[in-house]
Amino acid sequence: MDTNAAGTLDEALTRLHTTGPEFEGWLTNHAPMAVEALARHGQEHRVHRWVDAYRSRLEDRPAGHGRITSDNWREALGDPRYLTDWAEYFGVLLAERPWRAVLAEWWPRLLPGITAGATHPVIRVGHAVRVLLGEGETGPRLAELAHALGYWAARHQRLPAGIEALPAPGPAEEALRAVEAVYDQSGGINARLGRLRRLPAWTAGAPADDPAAAHERLRRLVRGATDFYATHGHGEPVMLVHAATAPNAVLRTLPALPAELWPASLDAAWAASSGVVAAYRPAEGTPVGRAAALAPEELFERAARHGDAHAIKLVDTALDVAAGHPDDTLALRAGARSLELIDPVD
Q: Which end of the chain is more exposed for a tag (fewer CB within 10 A), N or C?
């Protein structure tokens, strides 16, 4: 990201920090994540116009409910009445200590609730960490991390207890195809995740004391989930995006975390990805088209023109995968598929 793009991103984040993390009661504010991706991929000239269009649907930050402290945070965890209070609390912590230290302390506390807010909070954290790692610290970027962590804490939600662990194929893409749909795929994501009873135990054989192996396995999961979208995204084009973008958010965060937290991060990423697949997967996949894959730059430019935040973020993840596997075009086809399946912004 060049200096101009980074400055544009900071301006956009400053504008967005007057808005709440949700609107219309429960819909997620995707703008901070989308504008980070736009600025990163050379589309900074679109950022403010995109925010202008998106801003009309957003709401102001909700009123505070009560002050969070080091003594009472456990009682406030997972309570959306504290959406604003959690962001303010993390703002205080990040003003007092280095952001990596705050993240390392809170990551294991928040990780068990990775499916909170349909996985949007962890995705927002991943975008915030990526810009901090790549472009350095500024006030708006640290504030964005505070908002992202606060959103996660306020919406913290665990998967049901006692999920049966099923045998899992070794390759990530095969393990995702082996995920069974929940017995009732109706209602919102919280209702669907509440019906989870069985999941393949894909991370069960991963060594808990080998961070490098966890990192590599997580890379495979992101690739497998992106490829899964290419063939199964039609099941629910918007929601199945998160099966790839949630684990990729974890992958982006790993370099900022102590290595001893990486194996647990892999476990949580798999829980999020497989849970989303179980909630929304279709009965059958579809063949991938044979048309030539677009070049990465052209694909993202098309995503920017398409305008939908989920499509922008899926293409952003697809480009991450393609960068690591330049001879494999399936991830790029998955990104293009999202532009076909998700309605563009008018």
A: C
Helix, coil or strand: residue 28: strand
Query: What residue type is assigned to position 281 of the chain?
Result: R
Distance CA 242, CA 299 (A): 19
Each residue's pLDDT tens digit, 100-159: 999 999 999 999 999 999 999 999 999 999 999 999 999 999 999 999 999 999 999 999
User: Model's pTM, two decimal places?
Assistant: 0.97
Following DSSP, what letter does each residue of 47-94 receive, concatenated?
A: HHHHHHHHHTT--BPPPP-----TTTHHHHTT-GGGHHHHHHHHHHHH
Question: DSSP code of 157?
Answer: B
Eight-state DSSP code of residue 291? S
Cα–Cα distance for residue pair 61/271, rounded to 1 Å:
30
Q: What does the alpha-carbon distance between residue 307 and residue 288 come to, in Å, rounded to a whole number? A: 23
Distance CA 180, CA 157 (A): 21
- Residues shown for the chain: 346
Residue with token string 């928040």: 110
The residue written with tokens 């890379």 in the block is: 219
| Cβ burial, residue 328 (10 Å; 0-12/13-18/19+) | middle
Q: What is the distance between the alpha carbons of residues 60 and 54, in angstroms, rounded to a whole number?
A: 13
Q: Which residue has the higher pLDDT, 207 or 118?
A: 118
192 close to 279: Cβ distance less than 8 angstroms: yes
Report the greatest alpha carbon distance in the chain. 58
State whether residue 278 is helix, strand or coil.
Answer: helix
Q: Return the SS3 of 63.
A: coil
Q: Which residue has the tokens 């429960």?
A: 26
Q: Residue range 193-215: average pLDDT?
A: 91
